[in-house]
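Folding Query — how this chain folds
Tokens — whole-number codes for backbone shape
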Amino acid sequence: MRKLLLVKLLLVVLQLSTLPDVRANVQLPAIFGNHMVLQQNAEVSIWGWAKALEEVTVTSSWDQQVVKTTASNQAKWEVKLMTPAAGGPYTIKIEGYNTILLEDVLIGEVWLCSGQSNMEWSARAGIDNAEQAVAEANFPFIRFFRVGYRTADVPQQDLDGQWVVCTPETMKDFSAVAYFFGKDVHQNLNLPVGLIDNSWGGTPAETWVNPDLIAKNQAMAASAATQKEVTWCPVEPGKTYNAMLKPLVPYHIAGVLWYQGESNTNDPENYATLFPTLIQNWRSEWGYEFPFYYVQIAPFKHYGTQAGARLRDVQRRVLQVPNTGMVVVSDIGNNENIHPTNKHDIGKRLANLALNQTYGKKELPYSGPLFREMKTDGNKAVLYFDHADKGLVSKNKKLTQFEIAGSDQKFVKADARIVGNTVVVQAKRVKNPAAVRFEWHSAVEASLFNKEGLPASSFRTDDWVIK
């Protein structure tokens, strides 16, 4: 009998030893971990969960700053720390009933990189000179965080992913565009860079927007309803916003890189409302107007005759939104391949944009010619451009991508010639020009550049309803 009691007691002890420690409740979301990068010279938030009323203490090694808080009755807590100028590695200690020590933490520049497959595209998937690029990817002060694929009907509090150091092994499966951007920023500024890859191939922009905002706008809601179901990604409003974006808020970022639009060529005009809505939605979530830099979609013949050009022009017009920037890639695309393999130059152009506009490197060119205004001179239309102060050039003997129309709104092919930093356009059939279009076809080859070698964007000068 005594042996039986001892056996039962032993079993109870073993069972109790396997139960979780109800006092060890301090937890962190996945975005916080070893090897992470925090934004420099900023007030950053660190948050998590703990037992209700549990006292939580956070200590940073860069200044031994100690911040205390108490978990709410919802088991949540949050503290704010002031970060120094770029440097590291540091540690952050989070103490409650248990202790978490975050090690190898760097302070630098953090960029959120999002969109669809061209942002997601990796060296393993296939890029130019992939073998050399992978072999050279030894940058211990560049860190990656890849957000795992998830969807949700309501906003989530956590996501899947972890911070890793940039090595050939980790780089080959990470966003190539984000990597080449980060490498250039790191090498130009000589500071740590953290890159959060939050992309999913094929996703239309609607999936990355708060669904309530789309539901409140009749036109956006109607357009979203036309997105056809596919097998490789969600298309419904808010699905990735809820699961992959919302849990990152308010992790402090320097800005956003966006490469998306291919899946919205079915309704380019709606994108004129949808894309600015997305930008404002994200900025509202974080509570500040961070830079939002994006890649214009490349020419591709399978969009249909004009859909690609129409969406590229919409992207150009979105530059009216403050603190945005766009890089044009019509010279390094592939009309047969929706995924241009020259991700090196795309990343570099994004880096030059950020280095010039965000980090003050004004000597770096960051944009090709952008249409500014049209003036008429008899039967001629004279086009003026931003980013053309040093002049315009053509890589062909003749500019062939211009069309002109009179008040009848019927466009015809036009003769065009470069005159300094302007383009003069005319056609015998149009006596009184009313509008000009450039590269108004989904599949084009870039022909107009500035002296810095960057291509001009597709554009139209009119606001006529496209039939």
